Description:
By secondary structure, the protein is an all-alpha fold. It has helices at about 1-20, 20-25, 30-60, 65-70, 75-100, 105-125. The chain has one domain (about 25-125). It contains six helices and no strands. Zinc ion (ZN) binds next to helix 6.
Amino acid sequence: xxxxxxxxxxxxxxxxxxxxxxxxxxxxxxxxxxxxxxxxxxxxxxxxxxxxxxxxxxxxxxxxxxxxxxxxxxxxxxxxxxxxxxxxxxxxxxxxxxxxxxxxxxxxxxxxxxxxxxxxxxxxxxxxxxxxxxxx
Length: 136
Ligand SMILES: [Zn+2]
């Protein structure tokens, strides 16, 4: 009896699989969209790195992100490791893993969330640093 109940379910699942367009799952990872998304992330992380260094080195600022703080308090080396190693490289790696496991929407959405979050940090906090006194 259970087997008879499962037949329509199996039938439906195979029918749903046929509805999706073929090219949705058959794209190269470095297609135009991913190149644009990850280039935007690289540009935004670079802007974040330079504005963060400016606030920390010239305006006696503090890093409010506790995860980033352990890196950026070590100067440009830690800043580079955080901004380009973890934030750019980690984003590309996560996106690639989503692509390889068939999560093609997540592969684009996750780095776009990172771009938005970093843009908020750059324009909302780093470039509004006049409230802290500038070091001589
Ligand atoms: Zn993909």
